[in-house]
Design a protein that fits this description.
There is one protein chain. This protein is mainly β. It contains no helices and 14 strands. A hairpin with a 2-residue loop joins strand 1 and strand 2. The relative contact order is 0.08.
């Protein structure tokens, strides 16, 4: 249900079931005394809770929440969009898998052909036991329209570790991609 007035709005009892997933939640948004928009949200995806709150004002969006989520986005039209995204051990259900994502990154977007993501530290862990060996992938690098370069890439499990780097580039004129 939804209700609101000139001071804010509430959307409650959100229930969506795409495929075999279940998403439930609530959103509240309102204005503070300076005119900034303040919001809070609580969701669950397949019974995993996600709570966050934030503020939008002076062309800046800030979001904080569970799993040490911290997002800052500056929407200054002269420089495009810049920001940072950080999260620690965010549980992400993917089909029958449960992944944990930790990420410390920054980004810049000037237009659809001029953008860059810098991953300072990334960690992806498989938690559901699918791999049986506590598999983890750690990475750092940059992602741009022409591809990605991970200058640090490590796959590790209970018995082994493999480290190196990876480059994913779009092949000119082909629209495809390849690894090197």
């Amino acid at each position: 249900s939804a209700k609101g007035d000139e001071r804010g709005m509430d959307i409650t009892d959100i229930s969506v079931s795409p495929g075999s997933s279940s998403i439930l939640g609530n959103i509240h948004a309102g204005y503070d005394s300076s005119g900034d928009i303040i919001f809070t949200s609580d969701f669950s995806v397949n019974s995993i809770p996600y709570n966050f709150s934030g503020m939008y004002g002076n062309e800046t969006l800030s979001v904080y929440g569970d799993y040490n989520l911290a997002v800052s986005v500056d929407l200054d039209s002269s420089d495009g969009i810049t920001g940072a995204f950080r999260v620690n051990s965010l549980p992400v259900p993917v089909a029958s898998l449960m992944l944990s994502v930790s990420l410390d990154s920054s980004f810049t977007v000037r237009n659809s052909d001029d953008w860059k993501v810098i991953v300072k530290n990334g960690l992806l862990e498989e938690l559901s036991g699918f791999t049986l060996l506590s598999t983890k992938a750690a990475f750092a690098g940059t992602i741009e329209p022409g591809g990605a370069f991970l200058h640090e890439l490590t796959f590790a499990d209970s018995f082994s570790t493999v480290s190196g780097f990876a480059r994913l580039s779009e092949m000119p004129g082909e629209g495809g991609a390849w690894y090197s």
